[in-house]
Amino acid sequence: MIAGARIQVDENKEHPMDFVLWKGAKPGEPSWESPWGPGRPGWHIECTAMSLEYLGEQLDIHGGGQDLVFPHHENEIAQSECYTGAKPFSRYWMHNGLLQLGSDKMSKSLGNLVSVVEALERYSPDAIRLYFLSSHYRSPLAYSDRSLERVRRALIPGNGAGAEVEADTHRVRFAAAMDDDLNTPQAVAALFDLARDINRGRDAGQSVGSGQAALRELGAVLGTDFRGPPGSRGRPRRDSIHRPAGIGAHRTAGRPPVRPGRPDPGRPRRAGREP
């Protein structure tokens, strides 16, 4: 990076690459007292604090969208490693591609969200799950009803299928794909090929058994069991999503009260690193 190449360097910074750790209070915003005056943690500190509190000084895997690589994750790395002295902050980074609607990324700020609840009105959980897995996690994915409908139809042969077929080849393909940077598109292809062979074997009069067991065993790795009704198109809308009892109280209890004039008892805690 070249300081000042795109925007004018802030003269208040000691170094052009410095970023905000503590933001000064603005009218109407929550704030805490600090040695630097009333304010609140910067955006990057929020993630570092949660990571250090719940995961420790070093992470095995840190995920996030590709749009967070810079500056968010870069800054998480800098502040976390400086605070703890432990390097690397995260051993592995997995940055996922963005879900798109047309040419734009799907986001709340753009007002083009399709919620999971809305999608479940039209498609089964298995169809939605396999639709996402049909694209590599690092690749962008364009949401479309046409693509989801194609996955829904492809699921139909797998339901109720289960003939004695050779499943070992599909197992090897599935495992190799998952070992290759979680190559879920190839893993899903192996499942659909297995489902196809199961149905061909069933039509040929072969006995039901190991093929179906293998399909469900491998599908469970991806969170699907292929037990939904054939051609399932989703489920009725629910006005509220079930949450485990007490989760709201737990969240509230974990959030310190905002009281002007009193310091925040918490300390900075943890976040991530780039390869």
Task: Give structural notes.
- The chain is an alpha/beta fold and 275 residues long.
- It has helices spanning 43-55, 69-84, 116-120, 125-133, 145-155, 168-179, 184-203, 210-221, 247-253, and strands spanning 22-24, 39-41, 59-65, 90-96, 99-101, 104-105, 141-142.
- A 3-stranded mixed β-sheet has the order 6-5-7, with no helix packed on it.
- Strand 5 and strand 6 form a beta hairpin.
- Helix 1 crosses helix 2 (69-84), helix 4 (125-133) packs across helix 5 and helix 6 packs antiparallel against helix 7.
- The two termini are 17 Å apart.
- Its cofactor is Zn(2+).
- Residues 173-227 form the Cysteinyl-tRNA synthetase class Ia DALR domain.
- InterPro entries: Cys-tRNA-synt_Ia_DALR, Cys-tRNA/MSH_ligase, Rossmann-like_a/b/a_fold, tRNA-synt_1_cat_dom, tRNAsynth_Ia_anticodon-bd.
Shape assignment: elongated
What is the H/E string? Answer: EEHEHEEEHHEHHHHH
* Structure annotation, total helices: 9
Average pLDDT over all residues: 79
Sequence stretches where pLDDT stays below 50 over 5 or more residues: 236-241, 246-275
Q: How far apart are the first and last residues' alpha carbons, in Å?
A: 17 Å
Region (Disordered): 221-275
Subcellular location: Cytoplasm
Cofactor: Zn(2+)
Protein name: Cysteine--tRNA ligase, cytoplasmic
Give a topology summary.
Blueprint: E1 22-24, E2 39-41, H1 43-55, E3 59-65, H2 69-84, E4 90-96, E5 99-101, E6 104-105, H3 116-120, H4 125-133, E7 141-142, H5 145-155, H6 168-179, H7 184-203, H8 210-221, H9 247-253
Parallel strand pairs: 3-4, 5-7
Antiparallel strand pairs: 1-2, 5-6
Helix pairs in contact: 1-2, 4-5, 6-7, 7-8
Biased composition (Basic and acidic residues): 261-275
Protein name: Cysteine--tRNA ligase, cytoplasmic
GO molecular function: ATP binding; cysteine-tRNA ligase activity; metal ion binding
